[in-house]
Structures are given as structure tokens and as C-alpha cells.
Write a structure and sequence with these properties.
By secondary structure, the chain is of the alpha+beta class. The protein has 4 helices and 4 strands; from the N terminus they run H-E-H-E-E-H-E-H. It has helices at residues 2-10, 28-40, 59-63, 82-94, and strands spanning 13-19, 44-49, 52-55, 72-78. Helix 2 (28-40) packs antiparallel against helix 4.
């Protein structure tokens, strides 16, 4: 019976593989962008690594993956807009520089006055 439930739980789930392209690895800046992407969709989105699973709506959860340059991660999404969610996550990972990836919430950067 448990095997039947497991098979059913994977039905309708989309998966994709991404690789961390950033020299510094997946740091706070990228984790924030990914969490913003996760919050845009109704689907539940996870990043999986051999050692753990991260909920894409949680910056802290993403950071606990400790993903360095070249780390392969699996993106899993389940829900009505799962394909769009996966594509948005892939777009973040396809940006060679974190500042090149689109900001899903709009730019919030402000310049500091010179001291």
C-alpha cells in the first residue's frame, strides 16, 4: 500500500536539473531571488540535493543546501503552474552573474549617500 501511495504522489510532479553556475556558490543573494520566485507560484517547489531538500519559499532552507559551484540540484514542482515555476527557477540558474538574473519583484536597490 505504501508503494502505491508513493507512486501516486509523484504523478503530476515536474522535475528538472540545474547546476550552480556562480563562482561563490549559492549564497544569500541568489537564495533571496529563488525564494521570491518560489513565492510567485501556487505550486510547491523544492530544490533537492543528495544531502537535503529545500523549500523554495524559504531563504534559510535554500542556504542549508550549501551548494557550491558545479553542484547539481533537482528542481521539483507540484501544482497547477508547475511548468512555469520550473522555468522561472531555471532562468535564475541560467544567469552567469546573480545581478544578471531578472528580479521577480522589481529592483529594490537604493544607493547609499557617500560618507
Amino acid at each position: 500500500m505504501n508503494q502505491t501511495r508513493r507512486r501516486k504522489s509523484h504523478q503530476g510532479m515536474k522535475r528538472s536539473k540545474v547546476v550552480v553556475p556562480w563562482r561563490e556558490g549559492l549564497l544569500l543573494h541568489q537564495a533571496v531571488k529563488l525564494a521570491q520566485v518560489g513565492l510567485r507560484f501556487r505550486s510547491v517547489v523544492f530544490l533537492k540535493r543528495r544531502q537535503g531538500v529545500a523549500d523554495l519559499r524559504s531563504v534559510l532552507s535554500i542556504l542549508t543546501l550549501c551548494a557550491t559551484l558545479g553542484t547539481a540540484l533537482v528542481v521539483e514542482a507540484r501544482g497547477a503552474d508547475e511548468q512555469d515555476a520550473i522555468q522561472a527557477v531555471q532562468q535564475v540558474f541560467s544567469a552567469p552573474n546573480p545581478s544578471d538574473s531578472p528580479d521577480p519583484v522589481g529592483s529594490r536597490r537604493t544607493s547609499r549617500p557617500a560618507q
